[in-house]
Design goal:
By secondary structure, the chain is of the alpha/beta class. Helix content is about 45%, strand content about 15%. The protein is globular, with a radius of gyration of 18 Å.
């Protein structure tokens, strides 16, 4: 009797920091149910930490590259893709091209937090504030996002110093709880697992963005529907071979 084919999901860390990938893997892999295979990939180029508009744009390219590379070597189709960054670089492009459900840590967190009512975000890096407001608006969660509390250390710095992170994030969450919201998102791949540690000190529900990403990706939320097409609909120049092959397939299926 043959074993059923496991459902296969791709988790992409869009920055080049392997410690962030390891953090996601350490927190999420034990929660993956039987019959599910989680393939984890780190971006092969770009910023070590995504902290500005430019690094976010490059990270979107890196996400597409990681997906195209795995697709060019894998025989089985993916059941879903999770972008392991609280900012979801490449979300719309991957959703268009992949032919499977795609979500990111931010979108998944918005879905879960909005179920409680208006929500706040606590994350590292001041430059993320306008970027997250824009993302929430583009995903239809603008009215529910009432407050963003950024802390001075970046997500990378918080990840590197857990004791400092707990002190800093607890204070930020307590501040965010005073903004009239019903839930707080602790956003950032490097902060995976911290919500559980901070929850006893916070009166409102804390949403772990990494855990939310896994749950929504596996269908324990409201994952976005996949597009019918699978592939890019433009011809590329000077791009890796994986892009070229998918581009040709997409153009042929489109015309």
């Amino acid at each position: 009797m043959s074993m059923p084919t496991p459902r296969r999901y791709l988790l992409i860390n869009p920055n080049t920091n392997p410690l962030t990938t390891q953090r996601l893997q350490d927190v999420l892999q034990p929660l993956v149910p039987p019959g599910v295979q989680l393939d984890v990939h780190t971006a092969s180029f770009g910023a070590n930490y995504i902290a500005c508009e430019a690094s976010h744009v490059v990270a979107a390219h890196a996400c597409l590259d990681a997906w195209a590379a795995q697709r060019s070597v894998a025989s089985d189709p993916l059941d879903g893709v999770l972008i392991g960054c609280f900012g979801d670089p490449g979300l719309f492009a991957l959703r268009e091209a992949s032919g499977c459900p795609v979500t990111g840590l931010a979108e998944a967190s918005f879905i879960q937090a909005a179920a409680h009512g208006p929500f706040a975000i606590v994350t590292g890096g001041e430059r993320w504030k306008p970027m997250l407001h824009r993302l929430a608006g583009s995903l239809g969660f603008g009215p529910q996002l009432r407050h963003i509390e950024t802390v001075a250390p970046t997500g990378a710095a918080l990840q590197a110093d857990p004791e400092m992170a707990i002190r800093c994030l607890t204070q930020a969450c307590q501040q965010a709880a005073q903004s009239g919201v019903a839930a707080i998102i602790l956003g950032g791949a490097g902060l995976a697992g911290y919500a559980r540690l901070l929850q006893p000190h916070i009166v409102l529900p804390l949403i772990d963005s990494a855990l939310a990403g896994l749950e929504v990706m596996l269908g324990q939320g409201t994952p976005p529907a996949p597009h019918d097409q699978d592939g890019f609909f433009a011809q590329w120049q000077g791009m890796p071979d994986a892009f070229g092959s998918i581009s040709r397939e997409g153009v042929q299926s489109f015309v």
